[in-house]
Amino acid sequence: MDHDPFRWGRPRDDIYGKYDYSIANSEHYFQEHKDKYSEFPRMNTQEPIVTGTSVIGIKFEDGIIMAADNLGSYGSLSRFTDIERLIEFNDKTVVGISGDISDLQKIERLLEELKIESSYDDVNIEFQADNIHKYLRNVLYSRRNKMDPLWNSLIVGGIGSDNEPFLKYVDLLGVEYASPALSTGFGNYLAIPILRKFLEEKGIDETKTDSDNFRNIKEEEARKCVLECMKVLFYRDARSLNKFSIVTISKKNGIKLEKNLKIEDMSWEFAKDIKGYGNGQRY
Amino acid sequence: MAGLSFENYQRNQFLSSKGYAVPKATSTGTTIVGCKFNGGVVIAADTRATAGPIVADKNCEKLHRIAPHIWCAGAGTAADTEMVTQLISSNIELHSLYTNREPRVCTALTLLKQHLFKYSGHIGAYLIVAGTDPTGSHLFSIHAHGSTDIGYYQTLGSGSLAAMSVFESRWKLDLTKEEAMKLCSDAIQAGIWNDLGSGSNVDLCVMEAGKDAVLHRNYLTPNVRSQKANNYIFNRGATVVLKEKTIYSKLELVSEEVIISTPEERPEAMEVDA
Amino acid sequence: MSSDYSNIKDSAPIEHRFNPYSDNGGTILGIAGEDFAVLAGDTRHTTGYSINSRYEPKVFDVGDNIIMSANGFSADGNSLITNFKTNLQWYHFNNNEEKLKISSAARLIQHLLYGKRFFPYYVHTIIAGLDENGKGAVYSFDPVGSYEREQCRAGGAAASLIMPFLDNQVNFKNQANQPLRYLSLNEVLSLVKDAFSSATERHIHVGDYLEILIVTKEGVRTELYPLKRD
C-alpha cells in the first residue's frame, strides 16, 4: 500500500506495476479522461466500513417508539461504543439509521441543511415525518441511480401530515415500505417476529393507519416489547451492544429521547450447566 | 488411503467451465426446533418444502425416526436429510443388536457427525437430534460440515432466527411437557408466519423418559386452504379429439366366476363380548 | 506472480460491486371486461425470505379513470408511477385539463420506460381503464417499454402460474365448443380471487391481502380481501 498522503491506500506502482485498466474493461474510460482525472478510476462506496446494526420501531396508541444501540462496528471489531443513531429532526420527526456511519453523518448534515433552509423567516415550512421520509427516499434513490449509494437503511418515525402516527422504512436502493412494526438489518429476523406477535395479540389491523386502530396499545406496553426485542438482539446479534437509546414521539407528549439505557433482566444462569458439544466432554 | 480424494476436482472445474455445472439439489427453507423439559425432550418442524420460490410440497414430513426413542428434525437438502437419517438409523439398529443395548442419542450424534464431516459439507444435512436413552434425555444440533452443538433449546433452518426469538424471550429452566410443546409450536409458528421458506403446518414429536415417543403429525393446521369461488369442472367434450386409434382387439370372454360377499360374514370382524 | 495475475485477469470477472436492483415480490393481474376493467395485486412486500410489510399497496388510481401498477423492484415501480402522475399533471396544465386517453397513457409509459433503456426500471407494468368507446382496456409493458393491449395479463412473481389459468378461463383456450364472450364483473372478480388464492398456495412471495381496483364509467373503486399469511 502507498502511504503517500496524496496517494494513500493505492497499490504502489513500483511494487505492483501500473494499474491495468483492462481488468475492469475501462481502457476506453482511461483514454477519454486521462487528461482530466487522476489515472486511478473514481471509487464510490463499495462496501460499508464502520457500521451500525438494527434499528427497530413500533406504533402505539398515539405515537411511535424506536430504538437503536450505540455501537459502531469496524468489521468484527467493536470500534465505537458511543454512536447515537437516532437523529431528532424536530419534535415530530426522528430518523433511525443503520449501515455505514460516515454516510449516517452525511445524512445528518443533509437534514441539518434542510432544517436551516426551511427556517428563514420568509420560508416558514414546518416539515412533518412523511415529508422527511419522502425527502430522504429521493436522496437515497438518486444516489443509487448515480451508482454511488449512501449505504444505509433508515426508519423514519413521528407524526405525519394527517396528524396520525407515522412509521416508514427506506434503504440504499430507494426501496420504501410502511408497517405497524419495522426493523432494519438483523432485527428483521429476530425482532420483527416478536413485534408482530405483540401487534396480533392487540388485534391490530395492518391495513389501517388511523390511530383508532392502535387504541389498545398503551405506550408502556409498546416500550416493554421494544426493550424485550433489544434484549433478544443483544443475545443473538454479534454486532450489537447492551447500551442503547429509545425515542418516543406521541401526539400528547411530543418527543422524548432517552440515552445510555442498559439491557436489563438478562438470564445467563443456564449456561453453567452446558458442557462440551455433544459427546460427554467435561468442560 | 486416508483422507479425501480430490482427483476429480480439475475435471469438475473443466466441465463447469464448459457449461456443465453440477446440478443444484433442491434446498428446503425450513424451521425446525427442539426443546428440553423436565423428563424429556420435544422436537418440532414446519411442513413446507420449497424449490426456489415455488412451494413443492405443502405438507411434507421433516421429522425422521432414527430409533424408537431417538428422533431427528432435518433442514437443508431434502434428499440428504432423508438419506443420512435412514443410513444412521440402520447403523444404530445394527449397533444396538450387536451390543444388546438400547441405542443412545450420543451414538447417533457421533455416527452422524463423523459421516457428515467426511463429506466436508457436500451432504447438505442440518439436523436437530433428540431422544431419550438409559442415560437420560438429550438434545443436539448438527451442521452439514459436522460440527455439533448442545443446549436446552436449538433452532435450525431459514426460520431459525424467528424461532430463536421465541426461545430467547420466553424460555425458562424446568419446563413441563405441556409448556415445552407450546413453546416449540410457537417457535415453529414464528417461522411459518415470518419466514417465507417455512409454512403450512406444525409437526411435533415428544420423547419422554420411560415412555414411547409420540409423533403428533400435523399437531397444528393453521393454514387450511380457503374455499374456491368457482368450480372448474369442464363440460364433456371440452378437449378436442384429434385422432382415435384402438390398440387392442376385442376382448374375449374366457371364463366366468361369481363371488357373493355378505358383509355380516367378514371373518376379520372383531369379536365383541355380548 | 505474472502467471497468477493473468489467471485472475482471464477468468470470468468476479462481481464485487454495488447491485442497484432487488426483487420485492408480489404479483399483479389485469382483466378487461365489456364496460369495465380490473387491476388486482397482492399487498405483500418482500426481500429474500423476509416479509417487509403485509400491507404495502402497489395498484394505484393515477387519475383520469386509469389504474396502474408496476411490479418487480419496488423503488423503480414507485418512481415510474410518480413520474407518470407528474407527466399527467403537466398534460392537464398544457391541455386545458383535458382527460388523457388510455391509449395515450400507454404511449407515454412506453417513453418513460424506454427513456431508461440502458438502466431500466426493473418492473412489469400494467395499466387498466376504459377506451374511447367505453370498452374495458388493459395494456401491459415489459421493463423497457414494449407494450400491447390485451384482454388480460398477469405480471410479477407468480405471472407464470396465473397466466395459463387466464388463457383457459378468460380467452377459453383449449376449451372446445366455448364461444368467446365477455365475462361479467362478478365472473371476473371470482376468477381474480381464485387466481390469487391459488398463487398464494404455491408461491412464497405472494400472500397477505388481495387488493382489487375496478374501473367503470362511474369511476374507480377498491375491494380488499385477506389471503393466507404463511
TrEMBL record, chain A:
It comes from the Eukaryota. GO terms for biological process: proteasomal ubiquitin-independent protein catabolic process; proteasome assembly; proteasome-mediated ubiquitin-dependent protein catabolic process. The keyword Cytoplasm applies. Its main location: cytoplasm. Keywords: Cytoplasm, Nucleus, Proteasome. GO terms for cellular component: nucleus; proteasome core complex, beta-subunit complex; proteasome storage granule. It is found in: Cytoplasm; Nucleus. PANTHER family: METALLOPROTEASE TLDD (PTHR32194), PROTEASOME SUBUNIT BETA (PTHR32194:SF6). Belongs to the peptidase T1B family. Non-catalytic component of the proteasome. This is Proteasome subunit beta. It comes from Ascoidea rubescens DSM 1968. The lineage of its organism: Eukaryota, Fungi, Dikarya, Ascomycota, Saccharomycotina.
Automatic annotation (TrEMBL), chain B:
The keyword Hydrolase applies. The keyword NAD does not apply. This is proteasome endopeptidase complex. Keywords: Cytoplasm, Hydrolase, Nucleus, Protease, Proteasome, Threonine protease. InterPro entries: Ntn_hydrolases_N, Pept_T1A_subB, Proteasome_bsu_C, Proteasome_sua/b, Proteasome_suB-type. It is found in: Nucleus. One of its GO terms (biological process) is proteasome-mediated ubiquitin-dependent protein catabolic process. The 26S proteasome consists of a 20S proteasome core and two 19S regulatory subunits. The 20S proteasome core is composed of 28 subunits that are arranged in four stacked rings, resulting in a barrel-shaped structure. The two end rings are each formed by seven alpha subunits, and the two central rings are each formed by seven beta subunits. The catalytic chamber with the active sites is on the inside of the barrel. Residues 222-258 form the Proteasome beta subunit C-terminal domain. Transmembrane segments: none annotated. Gene3D superfamilies: Glutamine Phosphoribosylpyrophosphate, subunit 1, domain 1. The active site is at residue 30. It catalyses: Cleavage of peptide bonds with very broad specificity. CDD domains: proteasome_beta_type_7. GO terms for molecular function: threonine-type endopeptidase activity. GO terms for cellular component: nucleus; proteasome core complex, beta-subunit complex; proteasome storage granule. Its EC number is 3.4.25.1. Its main location: nucleus.
Automatic annotation (TrEMBL), chain C:
One of its GO terms (biological process) is proteasome-mediated ubiquitin-dependent protein catabolic process. GO terms for cellular component: cytoplasm; nucleus; proteasome core complex, beta-subunit complex. It is found in: Nucleus. Pfam families: Proteasome. InterPro entries: Ntn_hydrolases_N, Proteasome_bsu_CS, Proteasome_sua/b, Proteasome_suB-type. PROSITE patterns: PROTEASOME_BETA_1, PROTEASOME_BETA_2. GO terms for molecular function: hydrolase activity. Coiled coil: none annotated. Its main location: nucleus. PANTHER family: METALLOPROTEASE TLDD (PTHR32194), PROTEASOME SUBUNIT BETA TYPE-1 (PTHR32194:SF2). The 26S proteasome consists of a 20S proteasome core and two 19S regulatory subunits. The 20S proteasome core is composed of 28 subunits that are arranged in four stacked rings, resulting in a barrel-shaped structure. The two end rings are each formed by seven alpha subunits, and the two central rings are each formed by seven beta subunits. The catalytic chamber with the active sites is on the inside of the barrel. This is N-terminal nucleophile aminohydrolase. The lineage of its organism: Eukaryota, Fungi, Dikarya, Ascomycota, Saccharomycotina.
